[in-house]
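Sample pair:
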Amino acid sequence: MSPIDIPAIERRARQLRAEEIRRIEGLFAERMLILGRLLAGSAFAGVLALAEILRPLFSWNPKSAPSEVAPAASAAAARPRVALLTRANRFLRSLFAWNPEVHHHL
């Protein structure tokens, strides 16, 4: 019978364990990267939707009276305004309807 080399077996077991831990850490890092990109895409979509909601608040001009509307401004005023509930609905949908093929900014 040949003798059993216990130290060599223990070294090989430690080496295999270290390789498996590195593999699992790599998978974890890859999934965290994907999760981070999803989170950033959702946050960006939320910011864009919030900007659309807040845009009318900052684009109002108190100096332009309805009788003094310029031709270019009358064309802009002729556009239908989006209701607040519609904007809120778009904002909420943008947070939960993330599509990785649409967001090319990441």
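The radius of gyration is 29 Å.
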